Amino acid sequence: MLSLQYYLPVCSPNYHMNKRPFFYSSSITKFPHFSNPNSCVLKFRNSICGAADADKKRFNNDDQIVLVDQFPEGLEPELMPKHVGVIMDGNRRWAKNRGLPVQLGHRAGGKAMKQLAINCNKFGVKVVSVFAFSTENWIRPKEEVEFLMSFFEEVIKSDTKELMGHDMRVSFLGNRSRLPKSLQHLISCVEEEEAKDNKGMRLVIGMNYSGRYDITEATQKIARKVKDGVLGVEDINESLLEQHLETNGISNPDLLIRTSGELRVSNYMLWQLAYTELLFLNKLFPDFNEADLVEALAAFQQRRRRYGGHKY
Ligand SMILES: CC(C)=CCC/C(C)=C/CC/C(C)=C/COP(=O)(O)OP(=O)(O)O
């Protein structure tokens, strides 16, 4: 059990006391950090309860709340990005720098990915999408591709199952037909299990995925509907195209983090990134830790998003 760290009379410690409490008149689930039952325990009118139970209650202005798990300093829970995309780059360089085989770089990347998901969930992020394998990655040495395919199975069997135990949902993007049959089967099982109403953060894994693939597939689906007379050419608009992308139902990334110092998006979610805030870090993915995540989220919270408008 965690120890009590500080009192929270109104909202987060970073929240100015003169501002209106975020959850003053509404359900506590609107306060992202509190919506995660694993991340905090609240003291509510002299009784301790988990955030999940607190959700069923209503707060009054004079309720005293004790947050058991500390929310990182410098982060505003209410300004958290809803969807964080991550291009997990630099596994091989990480291994090479240490004189290790490439496989160990990917293994270290797998550990960093699991921790990333746990931390994002803790901070109230709703969706984390990760680019695990692009449609171009097949040109890598056969041995590495084979390792990655079996490693993905290993991670999905162990880590993602564990994440689902944390109330997270796991789903996949990309063309599955080229993946090994056993991996395809595993992915389907995980997604079916997802239907078993987990309510926590969503982890979306891009596997044999790319932005161009996604847009091309969507275009074909629409073209077929036009050919069959289900849709007219004039029905085609941005919203319709979005509905035919694999990410339909998932909000566009608010923040995209790419590790390893490369300054490109490498065919990841090309449509969806139109107004995403981009952050490039000079760190190899296996070294990406909680402090880096907090720094990235804090940097995001400093950005002013204008979506082409003129709000200053
Ligand atoms: C199930 C699941 C999603 C597991 C996650 C494992 C994981 C982190 C996979 C990423 C693989 C990959 C192509 C990384 C990019 O670094 P790189 O190999 O391109 O490294 P480099 O830029 O140094 O060459």
From TrEMBL:
EC class of the enzyme, as a word: transferase
According to its UniProt record, the EC number is: 2.5.1.-
The record's InterPro entries line, in alphabetical order, gives: UPP_synth-like (IPR001441), UPP_synth-like_CS (IPR018520), UPP_synth-like_sf (IPR036424)
PROSITE patterns under this entry?
UPP_SYNTHASE
Q: Name one GO molecular function term.
A: ditrans,polycis-polyprenyl diphosphate synthase [(2E,6E)-farnesyl diphosphate specific] activity
| UniProt key word Transferase | yes
One GO cellular component term of this record is: chloroplast stroma
| Gene Ontology terms: biological process | plastid membrane organization; polyprenol biosynthetic process; response to cold
Q: Does the keyword S-adenosyl-L-methionine apply?
A: no
Superkingdom, according to UniProt? Eukaryota
Q: Which UniProt keywords apply?
A: Transferase
Say which family it is in.
Belongs to the UPP synthase family.
Entry protein name: Alkyl transferase
- According to its UniProt entry, this protein's organism is Buddleja alternifolia
